[in-house]
Amino acid sequence: MKVDIEKKKTIFKRNHKEKHNIYYSTSKIIKDYTLSAVMLGIGILVAYLSHFIRFNFLAFDFSLFTLVYLIYKVKYRFVYLVTILLSLANLMHGSPSWVGTMILSLNNLFFVSMVIIFKKIFIPKTSKFHLNLCVLVLSSFLTIVFNVIMNGILYTPLYWYTFKITSTLNFLEVQKIYESHPTLFLLNIKSYWLGIIALYTIFNLIKNAIISFISLIILKIFVDQKTITTY
């Protein structure tokens, strides 16, 4: 008799736990969807407003701070979904072609991936200011390096080819063409690679510094000292 009672208690506890887990999981998904939608809306608005601020021919996009916040609050698949949608929204107000959207998407996906990786390394459970700073500094640095390299071998040749500035996609040929007639596209610097490094390092340092500053403030207010869920 006692054995039957114990079995019933065990079954009841297991069923109760399963129902609780299902309820929590469903509730979490709804919250993730809602927060992701809200941050996507904010991101689109910020992206639109920040596009009026320019460096040379490049438009700033400070909406990445919304993605940084989401990394700490929702499952990563939602972060990547919002990243892609936010980049596609750029077609509505920013880039005049698919090239700009592709470049923005790749850069944003790389930055988000770096933040996720370093967050997993440095911040397993509790968010703290100095750890968040390390995550953002390292992510920004690697993103700048990635952006400079990709601009030299792919982005710039593709952009110039699309807008008929050059007639080739070969970055070595593009380098020769530019160095024979330096232009403001690369700050009139005679060397193609020095121009790429100078332009995109300065541009991305300004952009990522502002994004990191805003992100740190938001994380300090809404996330720091709280236990965060890891995915």
TrEMBL record:
Keywords: Membrane, Transmembrane, Transmembrane helix. The chain crosses the membrane at residues 33-49, 99-118, 130-154, 192-219. It comes from the Bacteria. This is YitT family protein. It comes from Ureaplasma urealyticum.
